[in-house]
Design goal:
It is a single chain. By secondary structure, the chain is mainly beta. It is built from 1 helix and 21 strands. The strands form 3 sheets. An 8-stranded mixed β-sheet has the order 2-5-8-11-14-17-20-21. A 7-stranded parallel β-sheet has the order 1-4-7-10-13-16-19, with no helix packed on it. Strands 3-6-9-12-15-18 form a 6-stranded parallel β-sheet, with no helix packed on it. The termini are far apart.
């Protein structure tokens, strides 16, 4: 077993973006918040370990009671459209490995495992993007749209939106207890 010290990295540290955090937000200390534009995280939102918020090409705003799961990426990954921000509205869940570069994701929407929402796309309220499905750059989806299978589309008429929002609230309450939060690391 070697007692030699770790070799220092030759790469410069990633820039720290200006961050506005709600005191009630939960952010794992192994989450990654990088870039030069502003990042805002609302009340009772939960950022899992290894989630990535990238404001290198535009600001990122996450609303209240949102859940951003591990290995998901939010924010523009490269320069492109004129749209300068990514806005995630209240009660949105972004699951494992999802990539979100949308201009706006509407309230109560769910972006499932390894789904991709392209640059400048706009999702209405309570949309669901099912696992591995994608929304094209600049595409606009109306409220309650479900993208599933081979990128097929349908309108969700189940009427379960109120129950879904209560479920997200309960989920964030449980995650607050399970995920150690270290917001001071990002300030």
């Amino acid at each position: 077993m070697s007692t030699a010290s770790k070799r220092p990295s030759a790469l410069p540290a990633a820039p720290k973006p200006p961050i506005t955090l709600s005191p009630k937000a939960v952010i794992s200390d192994s989450a990654s918040l990088t870039g030069t534009f502003a990042i805002k995280i609302g009340d009772n939102s939960v950022i899992h370990p290894r989630a990535k918020l990238n404001s290198a090409f535009g600001s990122v705003a996450i609303g209240k009671q949102c859940i951003v799961c591990e290995r998901s990426c939010i924010g523009f990954q490269s320069i492109g459209l004129d749209e300068s921000s990514v806005t995630i509205e209240n009660g949105v869940t972004i699951e494992v490995g999802a990539v979100v570069e949308a201009a706006r994701v509407g309230e109560g929407s769910v972006i499932e495992v390894y789904a991709k929402v392209g640059k400048g796309a706009v999702l209405g309220k309570y949309c669901k993007i099912k696992p591995t499905c994608s929304v094209a750059d600049g595409e606009v989806l109306p409220d309650y749209m479900v993208v599933y299978g081979e990128n097929q589309r349908r309108i969700d008429q189940s009427g379960t939106q109120e129950t879904q929002m209560r479920s997200v609230a309960l989920h964030t309450d449980i995650l607050r207890k399970w995920i150690p939060s270290n917001p001071g690391k990002f300030q």
